[in-house]
Design a protein that fits this description.
Blueprint lengths: L2 H18 L9 H12 L2 H15 L13 H13 L4 H25 L1 H13 L3 H35 L5 H12 L1 H17 L1
Helix pairs in contact: 1-2, 1-4, 1-7, 2-3, 2-4, 3-4, 3-9, 4-5, 4-7, 5-7, 5-8
Length: 201
């Protein structure tokens, strides 16, 4: 792992907090997050491409209420980290999508098991109201650390796997993957058309 990829994972973990835990300034949207992360790796065009593709793919799902959509930040971070390792975007992006889905599943498990921890801090805050700042900082710090570990480990494992696998991929499989990557935005647009049609009626 290069320092740039490490910094990208740190930045991605911070941006992921913007989804629900803090800030909520929409920096966690794929169209914004990916180009920002690409400034770290130095390939801004790849960041814009990944950002647009991610935004179109996940545009119809928003983190409202109990809905936890696939993370656009994780998708962008894994894709760009693997691309920085020398893996083409047509392969890296699909690992990014899988990482985004797995991350949302892990987040659901964490939220279910956080209940006892919240009760503990609620009792402490009732006894000592000034403990609320410490509880909030600890919650944000824990979430940031979990985000970083998941993004870093997934990107590194998938990157190493693909670097090993690349010499064995036949030309036809490479072309098929590249074609599948190029139709991603059209899939995203196809999901948005019904939504616009319903709003127009």
């Amino acid at each position: 792992m290069t320092p740039e990829i490490f910094a990208l994972c740190v930045f991605a973990a911070l941006l992921e907090l913007d989804t629900t835990y803090a800030f909520q300034l929409t920096f966690s949207r794929g169209i914004i997050a990916a180009p920002l992360m690409a400034l770290i790796t130095g390939d801004v065009m790849a960041g814009i491409q990944v950002g647009v593709f991610t935004e179109l793919l996940f545009a119809d799902v928003n983190p409202l209420g109990g809905i936890l959509p696939p993370s656009a930040v994780v998708c962008s971070a894994v894709s760009l980290a693997m691309h920085a390792m020398g893996i083409e975007l047509c392969f890296a992006f699909f690992f990014g999508v899988v990482g985004a889905i797995l991350f949302s599943l892990a987040e659901k498990l964490v939220r279910k098991n956080r209940f006892k921890w919240l009760i503990f801090w609620e009792q402490k805050i009732i006894k000592k109201p000034s403990a609320v700042n410490r509880a909030v900082l600890l919650a944000l710090g824990t979430s940031f650390l979990m985000n970083f570990i998941l993004i870093f480990v997934f990107a590194w494992v998938c990157g190493q796997f693909m670097l090993w696998l690349l010499p064995f991929i036949p030309a036809k499989a490479y072309l098929a993957c590249r074609f599948a990557y190029l139709i991603v935005p059209w899939i995203g647009l196809a999901t948005l058309v019904p939504a616009f049609r319903l709003k127009a009626r």
